[in-house]
Here is the input.
Amino acid sequence: MEIIVAPLVAGGRLRGAADVFSPSMDLRRTLVALPQLLAALLVFAPAAEARTVDRVAAIAGSRVILLSEVRHAATPAIRKIHETDPLARARAETKALRAACEELIDDRLVDEEAERIHVGFTDDEIDRAIDAVATNNGRSRAELLVLATEQGFSEHEYRDVLRAQLLRAKVTQLRKPKMKPFEEAEAALVAELRAKVYVEDRLAP
Here is the structure.
């Protein structure tokens, strides 16, 4: 079974999804959306006096996920938001952050499971995976890494993203799902891992 999960979609962009909203503006909608707007402003507000302010966004078993990690993971999705209405943009950004946080929770849980069963990937294997992703998307390795940089990821960060995808695929594959679509087996794996430990998503509504 192929386990290389390319973090690119059609058009050559990195994975990440954020719905785009286009509501008409009226007073009732404005009042309803104020909590979302306030939440987005708090999340994206720069730290006073150039201080770095961070907080815990989620807990996944023994792993802590910081808000800065969630923001960074959500960068590709947020860059695809083209809303000019501030309330609609706030909703879309909040949704992108929540989706990124859920994804990071799953990645941390799979990472713990991979450590438990002694599964991992060497740097050489990640190099080969990068080359395979580039080939599958009709690009050279250099072009792929430039694209990742344009999406806000350094080469090291991109390797971490790809490693997480490969780990999830490999751990799922080792469960040997019988006659079950891979996506369904992956979802079942994540649900099982979540049920075993304490999980708290502090960005959840």
